[in-house]
Amino acid sequence: MPNINAAKKWSRASEKRRQRNQDVKSKLKSLYKSAVTGGATLESKKSTASAFDKAAARGIIHKNKANRKKSRLAKRAVKAG
Question: Where are the alpha helices (DSSP H) in the chain?
């Protein structure tokens, strides 16, 4: 446990950020999974791609990971018809 007040604040802030990032990552996984399954519309796939872009812009996931996921999603969309 930190003794310095500023370190205590850093610890609290880090925990808040960690929790927020974890929530966003979980949401991205859910969006991706629902977009990949058969019942997803083109609009839902676009919103999923947008969510990946936003997460990458905020630094929650790496930019290359976001692009990779979007690319795989687009390939599935083309393959599905």
Answer: 5-36, 42-58, 63-80
**31 vs 51: CA distance, rounded Å:** 9
What is the spatial distance between Cα 33 and Cα 27, in angstroms, rounded to a whole number?
Answer: 10
List Cβ neighbours of 48 (8 Å cut-off, separation of 6 or more).
Answer: 31, 32, 34, 35, 73
Q: How many C-beta atoms lie closer than 10 Å to residue 80's C-beta?
A: 10
Q: Specify the number of domains making up the chain.
A: 1
Residue-range definition of the domain harbouring residue 71: 5-80
Residue-wise pLDDT for 15-49, tens only, equals 999 999 999 999 999 999 998 886 668 888 889 99
List the structure tokens of 46. Answer: 């676009």
**CATH for 74:** 1.20.58.110
